[in-house]
Structures are given as structure tokens and as C-alpha cells.
Design goal:
By secondary structure, this protein is mostly beta strands. Helix content is about 10%, strand content about 30%. The chain contains one helix and eight strands. Strands 1, 2, 3, 4, 5, 6, 7 and 8 form an eight-stranded antiparallel sheet that branches. The model has no long low-confidence stretch (mean pLDDT about 90).
């Protein structure tokens, strides 16, 4: 992996649900993740407003290098996976949104609050 990214970065990475595509992924892990900096915990960005997805609002974006170009965009915290390859960074989301997403991922895997 040639790029080190931080929690809250939205990156373009291989799509784990497609053999030939890439998709935006929100990185929710930090440097304490066991595979850092060679792997990250990510959750996919989608165009589908499904139950339990979280909408990305303009005020959630802390910085933008390249916008998602898909509006509205939603984050699916019920589908976490390890990201080992990153093509490029798109934008950075707020700490507050990342905290909410982390809580939802914890719920998805059955962690007690």
C-alpha cells in the first residue's frame, strides 16, 4: 500500500462486492488497528438509502480533494471490511460522523454499548 490514510478519510479502493470495480470507502480505523498502516477497516459508500445507512451531508465534509460526484451518498456501517489497497483519497469526514459510524459498526457486530 503506497498511501497512509487516517480515520475519516474517504478513499477510492477496490470494491469488495465486485471483481472489476472500485468504490468510495470510509476508513473508520485508526493507528491502533492491528494491520495499520498496511490495512484499514473500511465501510462502503453507496447511492442507495437502505435501512441503517447514514447520509453524507455537506457539513460532514471537513476537506475535499475530489468530491464523490454521486449525490446523495450514504454510508453502510453494516458492511465493514478490511481495505488493503487504496487508489486515492477523495475527502475527509468529521470526527463526529466517524464516531457515529463506529458505534453503528459495533452494533452490527453485536458489541454491547
Amino acid at each position: 500500500m503506497s498511501v497512509t490514510v487516517d480515520r475519516g478519510n474517504v478513499v477510492l479502493a477496490p470494491d469488495p462486492y465486485s471483481s472489476d470495480g472500485r468504490r468510495p470507502i470510509v476508513i473508520i480505523s485508526n493507528e491502533e488497528y492491528p494491520f495499520y498502516p498496511h490495512g484499514y477497516l473500511g465501510i462502503p459508500v453507496t447511492t442507495h438509502n437502505k435501512p441503517n445507512t447514514v447520509k453524507i451531508h455537506e457539513y460532514d465534509k471537513v476537506s475535499v480533494k475530489s468530491d464523490l460526484h454521486v449525490n446523495p451518498s450514504y454510508i453502510n456501517p453494516w458492511s465493514p471490511f478490511q481495505v488493503n489497497e487504496i487508489h486515492r483519497e477523495l475527502l475527509t469526514l468529521s470526527d463526529e460522523l466517524c464516531d457515529r459510524l463506529s458505534e453503528k459498526v459495533s452494533q452490527a457486530v453485536g458489541a454491547k454499548s
